[in-house]
Amino acid sequence: MRHYGLDWLRIGAFALLIVYHVAMVFAPWPWVVKWPQTFPALIVPMALLTPWRILLLFVVSGFATRRLLARMPSLGEFAHQRSLRLLVPLAFAMLVLLPPELWVRVRLAGDPDGLAAYWLGDYWSPIVHYGRSFPTWEHMWFVVYLWAYTMVLAALLKAGGAGWIDRAAAWLSVGHRIVWLPILVLAGAKIALMFVVPETQGLFTDWSGHAVNLPLFLFGFALGGAPALWRGIARHWRGAAMIAAASALVVTWVELHYQGAAVPGHAMMAADRAARLAMAWGVIVSLLRLADTVLNRDHRLRASLAEAVFPAYIVHHPVLVVLAWAAPAAGLRAGAGFVFLLSATVAACAACYLIGRDIAWLRPLIGLAPARPAPVRQLA
């Protein structure tokens, strides 16, 4: 049975991601391209979103993976289908969608070449060119990670089946473990690795990220087949929400007191990472409870919105980067610029989905399942 609440969480998380990325153009932190004015008032609201928004997506993706696996005839077919669904859009993005974004990046770094010259030449070079080299996947890192975690999951299932995951879920559901144990494990792993390996995105370098993302993906997978976890969430979500609120105070205090080039010491940095993960887990548990109660109902727009998420994710980032780079020349004030960037990005996402869903060859390129053949009408 489909869990509509998880669909709404996924839709909401991706909608929030678009707003977040638009806000990054105006926030004081470094990002791909910045508006001429930035606004420190954005620090607190964005600090309250940063720790949990991506981690929630890994949980929801793990849950959806469990449901997809249940519909597959074999584990091998599951791995094959997931590879097609994730790697084909990745290749399309790297071939078609990312070059304009990467061109903006190298232009900002001083490259005098036009888009066509860059796209046909230096974009494909493995030699670093104005700070960039091929291959690079920019915001599509999430898709790369999701594919890698799915393959790890498939290998684990082939070696031992899903029984051990379900047994671990049942054990986690006992007592108050679902509140404190994930925080202890995730924060411990993060702190143990953060001063040893760099905190940078990279499939073969981001070990501190994998130490958090992969367990949450596996938790989502377990959630798809373990009613005991849902019961544990129902019992303890209030305590998790209180932990999230207390941790949010630490996260915002650190962000406000260490701005610009100011760097906290090792002890404060470790406390900040622990608080971020405690906040993330508390928010995730609370949102899962919300999804299972308030949001677990269908709506006529749900199916279309859920299907539109992947195409929107693929296209939103390059569109936003190009527009944010070009828009200040129009002389827009910051408020009008924010409205324009948000509206234009959402419109591009909607156009990508609404046009692409009706073109059979384009559907797999933007992350949609192949169109089902129309039923053959029988003559009377």
Quick structural summary:
68% of the residues lie in helices and 0% in strands.
List the helices and strands and how they pair.
Blueprint lengths: L3 H23 L16 H5 L5 H18 L4 H35 L5 H6 L20 H20 L2 H10 L4 H18 L12 H17 L3 H31 L8 H28 L8 H25 L7 H23 L24
Helix pairs in contact: 1-3, 1-11, 1-12, 1-13, 3-9, 4-6, 4-12, 6-9, 8-9, 8-11, 10-11, 12-13
Keywords: Membrane, Transmembrane, Transmembrane helix
Organism: Sphingomonas dokdonensis
GO molecular function, one term: acyltransferase activity, transferring groups other than amino-acyl groups
What report would you give on this structure?
The structure is a single chain. This protein is mainly α. It has one domain (4-366). It is 68% helix and 0% strand. It has 13 helices and no strands. The model has no long low-confidence stretch (mean pLDDT 94). Residues 4-355 form the Acyltransferase domain.
Give the number of helices. Answer: 13
Domains (count): 1
Shape: globular
Oligomer state of the chains in this structure: single chain
Which range does the strand content fall in?
Answer: under 5%
Structural class, please? mainly alpha
